[in-house]
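Lecture 7 notes: from sequence to structure.
We start with the chain below.
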Amino acid sequence: MATLTAGDKAPDFTAKDQNGNTVSLSDFKGKTVILYFYPKDDTPGCTAEACDFRDNYQSLLGKGFEVIGVSTDDEKSHKKFITKHNLPFPLIADTDHSVVEAYGVWAEKNMYGKKYMGTVRTTFIIDPEGNIKNVIDKVDTKASSQQVLDLL
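Predicted structure tokens for the same chain:
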């Protein structure tokens, strides 16, 4: 699994969002995209991160950003998460792990001594030409949108 860094071409993907609509990264060409990967819908850290992006969404849009969340949860789980927390941006259902693997964020994790494969919380900022501008691998779930803005 390759580690993507600033300057690399962002891997294009095509996957379903919470409504079953097909979404591709190339749909956002010409826009700056905040593509954030998170482990699981409706868990404390993932909820804090999603709600931080929600609370700052209009400000991010005003600065020219689009926000897209990605996890390996299915469309139904995403729909429930969006409805419960009033999230205004799409969540990609990467149930086959193709997107997390393309971005190098599917890795072995360790919790309470148990090893398992999972999504490593990571945020990619992708420029209008489709290149990775920044990678945030130490995400502050309560201030993730501010981390993005601090880089710019």
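Points to note: The beta strands are 14-17, 22-24, 32-37, 65-71, 91-93, 106-111, 114-119, 122-126, 132-136. The two ends are 28 Å apart (CA to CA).
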